[in-house]
């Protein structure tokens, strides 16, 4: 017989686990599918120093294991598996796990996250977490008084470069085009910051490093000439990819593919479907904001079911 659950949570990052903690404590017997990255993005990093309640810092995997344990303590049913299809046309929603198993869900909390885009260089992959980062807010602090580079020419890249410039000795911006794509105000901020140097018409050929991590980058100008810069941190700011393919023709998404929610809530364009974490947040993308929005989604979901 096909299983029907009250609350189905998709994703096991801070948003999904927090939603599981709240909905299990509300006696809603949530079922959570963890997807291909159990614990989410934080499991790919070592030091997390900005999650409240951990004055000495905590590793990403430890923090996520604690959240999981906390959800399980209240009875959340955490399962291995990836949601491969959803049908949101009518409630209960029809959900397929790993292409075979079918489940019906009275409500859905989507917490599938957003993945940072990388250039795709093998050397970039090799030094990920050892100098290569896609989050200046998360990792900038580790590069205080050092030289770093930011890849990208849009608003986010300018924002990340400005933030890093307040911590680091020097920030190179590696920009493919002869101009920045960012708004005029952001461009002005970058050009007025003395320790940001914009390298127009440069592409990264290789991230350089040794056993200690990143030590530099080899850049190729559009005219074919090469230049090497010495840096300790290499920050990507070329965009994120929200994990929303499953929902693309069923939920309202913004131009970049993030799930649109009713302002101040987690309510999506379909009644009974709630979104939490990076998948609905093009701006903040932090563990604490993801956890907070997991709480909001759980409370919205609980109120919806009580109606
Ligand atoms: C290297 C790195 C370091 C970071 N450092 C920090 C830091 O120090 N501090 C900080 O606050 N933030 C940090 N962040 C950002 C933080 O990790 C994210 O903001 C946070 O994890 C977002 O949580 P989330 O729950 O929205 O999604 P995610 O953590 O992205 O989790 C998404 C989950 O959805 C699952 N999923 C996706 N598709 C499916 C599917 N079809 N079916 C089932 N499951 C699915 C995945 O398996 C995953 O479990 C860092 C990020 C990275 C990449």
UniProtKB/TrEMBL annotation:
It holds the Pfam family Pyr_redox_2. GO terms for biological process: removal of superoxide radicals. Binds 1 FAD per subunit. Residues 6-294 form the FAD/NAD(P)-binding domain. GO terms for molecular function: thioredoxin-disulfide reductase (NADPH) activity. Keywords: Disulfide bond, FAD, Flavoprotein, NADP, Oxidoreductase, Redox-active center. Homodimer. PANTHER family: THIOREDOXIN REDUCTASE 1-RELATED-RELATED. This is Thioredoxin reductase. It comes from Alistipes timonensis JC136.
């Amino acid at each position: 017989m096909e299983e029907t659950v009250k609350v189905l949570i998709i994703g096991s990052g801070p948003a999904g686990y927090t939603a599981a903690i709240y909905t299990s404590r509300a006696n809603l017997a949530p079922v959570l599918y963890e997807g291909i990255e159990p614990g989410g993005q934080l499991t790919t990093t070592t030091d997390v120093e900005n999650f409240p309640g951990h004055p000495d810092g905590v590793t990403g995997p430890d923090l996520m294991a604690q959240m999981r344990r906390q959800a399980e303590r209240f009875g959340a049913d955490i399962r291995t598996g990836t949601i491969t299809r959803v049908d949101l046309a009518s409630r209960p929603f029809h959900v397929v796990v790993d292409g075979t198993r079918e489940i019906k869900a009275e409500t859905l909390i989507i917490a599938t996250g957003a993945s940072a885009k990388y250039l795709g260089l093998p050397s970039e992959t090799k030094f990920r977490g050892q100098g290569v980062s896609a989050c200046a807010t998360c990792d900038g602090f580790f590069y205080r008084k050092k030289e770093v580079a930011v890849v990208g020419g849009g608003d986010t890249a300018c924002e990340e470069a400005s933030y890093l410039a307040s911590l680091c000795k020097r920030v190179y911006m590696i920009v493919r085009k002869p101009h920045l794509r960012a708004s005029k105000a952001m461009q002005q901020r970058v050009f007025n910051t003395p320790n940001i140097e914009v390298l127009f018409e440069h592409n990264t050929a290789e991230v350089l490093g040794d056993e200690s991590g990143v030590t530099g980058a080899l850049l190729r100008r559009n005219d074919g000439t090469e230049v090497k810069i010495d840096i300790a941190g290499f920050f990507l700011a070329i965009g994120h990819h929200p994990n929303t393919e499953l929902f693309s023709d069923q939920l309202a998404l913004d131009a970049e593919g993030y799930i649109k929610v009713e302002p101040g809530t987690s309510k999506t364009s379909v009644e009974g479907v709630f979104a939490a974490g990076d998948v609905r947040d093009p701006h903040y993308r932090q563990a604490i904001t993801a956890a907070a929005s997991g709480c909001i989604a759980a409370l919205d979901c609980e109120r919806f079911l009580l109606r």
